[in-house]
Design goal:
Blueprint (H helix, E strand, L loop, with lengths): L8 H19 L4 E2 L2 E2 L6 H11 L5 H16 L5 H15 L1 H4 L4 H27 L5 H12 L2 H11 L8
Antiparallel strand pairs: 1-2
Helix pairs in contact: 1-3, 2-3, 2-4, 2-8, 3-4, 4-6, 6-7
Protein backbone atom coordinates (compact mmCIF):
# COMPACT_ATOMS: atom_id res chain seq x y z
CA UNK A 1 0.00 0.00 0.00
CA UNK A 2 1.35 3.43 -0.89
CA UNK A 3 1.56 6.39 1.43
CA UNK A 4 -1.31 8.84 1.38
CA UNK A 5 -0.83 11.96 -0.69
CA UNK A 6 -1.64 15.51 0.42
CA UNK A 7 -5.26 16.45 -0.19
CA UNK A 8 -4.84 19.31 -2.64
CA UNK A 9 -7.95 20.00 -4.77
CA UNK A 10 -6.10 19.92 -8.10
CA UNK A 11 -4.69 16.50 -7.22
CA UNK A 12 -7.78 14.66 -5.97
CA UNK A 13 -10.38 16.55 -8.06
CA UNK A 14 -8.70 18.17 -11.08
CA UNK A 15 -6.43 15.41 -12.34
CA UNK A 16 -9.08 12.65 -12.09
CA UNK A 17 -11.59 14.93 -13.85
CA UNK A 18 -9.19 15.36 -16.77
CA UNK A 19 -8.54 11.61 -16.89
CA UNK A 20 -12.28 10.86 -16.96
CA UNK A 21 -12.95 13.43 -19.69
CA UNK A 22 -10.10 11.99 -21.79
CA UNK A 23 -11.36 8.42 -21.30
CA UNK A 24 -14.92 9.44 -22.23
CA UNK A 25 -13.71 11.11 -25.42
CA UNK A 26 -11.50 8.11 -26.26
CA UNK A 27 -14.34 5.63 -25.78
CA UNK A 28 -16.67 7.93 -27.74
CA UNK A 29 -14.68 7.45 -30.93
CA UNK A 30 -16.94 5.63 -33.41
CA UNK A 31 -14.51 2.75 -33.94
CA UNK A 32 -15.84 -0.69 -34.80
CA UNK A 33 -13.91 -3.95 -34.67
CA UNK A 34 -15.60 -7.13 -35.89
CA UNK A 35 -18.88 -5.23 -35.95
CA UNK A 36 -18.64 -4.31 -32.27
CA UNK A 37 -18.26 -0.82 -30.84
CA UNK A 38 -16.41 0.16 -27.68
CA UNK A 39 -18.67 0.22 -24.61
CA UNK A 40 -19.78 3.58 -23.24
CA UNK A 41 -19.22 3.33 -19.51
CA UNK A 42 -20.07 6.30 -17.33
CA UNK A 43 -16.51 7.10 -16.28
CA UNK A 44 -17.52 9.95 -13.90
CA UNK A 45 -19.47 7.43 -11.79
CA UNK A 46 -16.18 6.18 -10.35
CA UNK A 47 -15.31 9.72 -9.31
CA UNK A 48 -18.74 10.43 -7.82
CA UNK A 49 -18.36 7.33 -5.65
CA UNK A 50 -14.69 7.82 -4.73
CA UNK A 51 -15.05 11.49 -3.86
CA UNK A 52 -17.95 10.72 -1.52
CA UNK A 53 -15.97 7.97 0.21
CA UNK A 54 -12.73 9.97 0.47
CA UNK A 55 -14.21 12.90 2.40
CA UNK A 56 -17.08 15.36 2.46
CA UNK A 57 -16.18 18.37 0.34
CA UNK A 58 -17.83 21.47 -1.00
CA UNK A 59 -15.94 21.21 -4.31
CA UNK A 60 -16.75 17.58 -5.19
CA UNK A 61 -20.47 18.10 -6.00
CA UNK A 62 -19.54 20.93 -8.35
CA UNK A 63 -17.04 18.64 -10.06
CA UNK A 64 -19.71 15.94 -10.36
CA UNK A 65 -22.14 18.51 -11.77
CA UNK A 66 -19.58 19.69 -14.34
CA UNK A 67 -18.81 16.11 -15.39
CA UNK A 68 -22.51 15.34 -15.73
CA UNK A 69 -23.06 18.38 -17.92
CA UNK A 70 -20.04 17.37 -19.99
CA UNK A 71 -21.58 13.91 -20.54
CA UNK A 72 -24.89 15.47 -21.57
CA UNK A 73 -23.21 17.73 -24.11
CA UNK A 74 -20.80 15.05 -25.36
CA UNK A 75 -23.46 12.37 -25.82
CA UNK A 76 -26.14 14.81 -26.98
CA UNK A 77 -28.62 13.92 -24.25
CA UNK A 78 -31.01 16.18 -22.40
CA UNK A 79 -29.03 18.82 -20.54
CA UNK A 80 -28.93 17.98 -16.85
CA UNK A 81 -29.75 14.27 -17.15
CA UNK A 82 -26.36 12.87 -16.22
CA UNK A 83 -25.67 15.75 -13.86
CA UNK A 84 -28.71 14.80 -11.76
CA UNK A 85 -27.96 11.07 -12.00
CA UNK A 86 -24.34 11.53 -10.91
CA UNK A 87 -25.37 13.85 -8.08
CA UNK A 88 -27.85 11.19 -6.90
CA UNK A 89 -25.04 8.63 -6.90
CA UNK A 90 -22.74 11.03 -5.05
CA UNK A 91 -25.43 11.77 -2.47
CA UNK A 92 -26.17 8.09 -1.98
CA UNK A 93 -22.52 7.26 -1.47
CA UNK A 94 -22.07 10.24 0.85
CA UNK A 95 -25.00 9.21 3.06
CA UNK A 96 -23.67 5.63 3.26
CA UNK A 97 -20.10 6.79 3.87
CA UNK A 98 -20.14 5.95 7.60
CA UNK A 99 -21.39 2.42 6.87
CA UNK A 100 -18.67 1.93 4.24
CA UNK A 101 -15.82 2.96 6.55
CA UNK A 102 -13.49 0.06 7.21
CA UNK A 103 -15.27 -2.35 4.86
CA UNK A 104 -13.49 -4.70 2.48
CA UNK A 105 -12.97 -3.93 -1.20
CA UNK A 106 -15.69 -6.41 -2.15
CA UNK A 107 -18.26 -4.66 0.05
CA UNK A 108 -17.23 -1.29 -1.37
CA UNK A 109 -17.63 -2.73 -4.88
CA UNK A 110 -21.17 -3.80 -3.95
CA UNK A 111 -21.86 -0.27 -2.67
CA UNK A 112 -20.45 1.10 -5.91
CA UNK A 113 -22.74 -1.22 -7.87
CA UNK A 114 -25.75 -0.09 -5.83
CA UNK A 115 -25.00 3.61 -6.34
CA UNK A 116 -24.41 2.97 -10.04
CA UNK A 117 -27.70 1.07 -10.29
CA UNK A 118 -29.49 3.92 -8.54
CA UNK A 119 -28.09 6.46 -10.99
CA UNK A 120 -28.87 4.24 -14.00
CA UNK A 121 -32.46 3.59 -12.89
CA UNK A 122 -32.95 7.31 -12.27
CA UNK A 123 -31.55 8.05 -15.73
CA UNK A 124 -33.83 5.42 -17.25
CA UNK A 125 -36.87 6.97 -15.56
CA UNK A 126 -35.89 10.51 -16.52
CA UNK A 127 -35.35 9.53 -20.16
CA UNK A 128 -38.66 7.68 -20.15
CA UNK A 129 -40.43 10.78 -18.84
CA UNK A 130 -38.64 13.04 -21.31
CA UNK A 131 -39.15 10.92 -24.44
CA UNK A 132 -42.50 9.40 -23.42
CA UNK A 133 -41.21 5.98 -24.49
CA UNK A 134 -39.15 3.28 -22.82
CA UNK A 135 -35.43 3.16 -23.60
CA UNK A 136 -33.80 -0.20 -24.34
CA UNK A 137 -33.04 -2.26 -21.25
CA UNK A 138 -30.26 -4.30 -22.88
CA UNK A 139 -28.10 -1.27 -23.84
CA UNK A 140 -28.64 0.12 -20.34
CA UNK A 141 -27.59 -3.22 -18.83
CA UNK A 142 -24.40 -3.25 -20.94
CA UNK A 143 -23.65 0.33 -19.91
CA UNK A 144 -24.23 -0.65 -16.26
CA UNK A 145 -21.85 -3.62 -16.56
CA UNK A 146 -19.22 -1.51 -18.31
CA UNK A 147 -19.52 1.09 -15.55
CA UNK A 148 -19.25 -1.26 -12.56
CA UNK A 149 -16.08 -2.72 -14.09
CA UNK A 150 -14.52 0.71 -13.44
CA UNK A 151 -14.56 0.18 -9.68
CA UNK A 152 -10.79 -0.49 -9.43
CA UNK A 153 -10.20 3.10 -10.60
CA UNK A 154 -12.44 4.38 -7.78
CA UNK A 155 -10.63 2.11 -5.31
CA UNK A 156 -7.28 3.44 -6.49
CA UNK A 157 -8.41 7.00 -5.76
CA UNK A 158 -9.76 5.96 -2.37
CA UNK A 159 -6.47 4.26 -1.51
CA UNK A 160 -4.47 7.31 -2.58
CA UNK A 161 -6.42 9.99 -0.77
CA UNK A 162 -8.52 8.42 1.99
CA UNK A 163 -6.01 9.04 4.78
CA UNK A 164 -4.70 12.36 3.46
CA UNK A 165 -6.96 14.53 5.61
CA UNK A 166 -6.41 13.85 9.31
CA UNK A 167 -9.69 15.58 10.26
CA UNK A 168 -11.69 12.62 8.84
CA UNK A 169 -9.72 9.69 10.31
Amino acid sequence: MSAARPLEPWRWLGVPMLQVVAATILFGIPLRAFGLQLPEPVFPMALAFAWAVIRPSILAPFGVLALGLFLDIFWGGPLGLWAVCLLLAYGGALTGRSMMAGQSRLILWVWYGLTTATAMVAGYLFVMLDSKSTPGLIPMAWQFLATIVLYPYAQRLIDLFEDADVRFR
